[in-house]
Write a structure and sequence with these properties.
Elements (H helix, E strand, L loop, with lengths): L8 H12 L2 H8 L3 H15 L4 E4 L2 E4 L1 H21 L11 E7 L1 H18 L3 E7 L10
Parallel strand pairs: 3-4
Antiparallel strand pairs: 1-2
Length: 141
């Protein structure tokens, strides 16, 4: 199956539907209309070839296939969330060495202020400055 043919937003809607087991509540949670959410449920049913949610005496209940999809969908959505909005790194907790290769003159201008700032914001970083050598461009003519 080609991913370009799948509306991945359906997974967000299906996640809400499985959590709520109620189309109107899922619609409210997502900021969608009830008809739009119901139409998305129909598209999910077609995509997964399963009713996913069925009416029961106490409201809607998830089918076995829907229950099997619940954890993978949650995991996938969490992975996408982390990819799109990664957690910020706390510089104070980093422990590593950073190597910078640069010519002597720029290094003399930059290293002092950089080292001073890093000692306050990222004390676990070791800064290593290595001299760079000027190389002629490969297209000398």
């Amino acid at each position: 199956m080609n991913l370009r043919t799948i509306d991945l937003n359906l997974l967000v809607i299906l996640d809400a539907l499985l959590d709520e087991a109620h189309v109107s509540r899922a619609a409210d949670r997502l900021g969608l209309s009830q008809p739009a959410t119901s139409a998305a449920l129909e598209r999910c049913r077609h995509l997964f070839a399963d009713p996913l949610l069925e009416r029961g005496k106490a409201g809607m209940r998830a089918t076995p296939k829907a229950e099997a999809l619940r954890a993978p969908i949650k995991s996938l959505l969490a992975d996408i969330q982390g990819l799109v909005n990664p957690p910020e790194t706390d510089l104070a907790t980093l422990r590593q060495t950073i190597r910078i290769i640069m010519a002597d003159h720029p290094a003399a201008m930059i290293v002092g202020p950089l080292h001073h700032r890093l000692s306050k914001t990222a004390p676990g970083l070791d800064l290593v400055i290595q001299p760079g050598t000027a190389r002629p461009p490969p297209w000398t003519g």
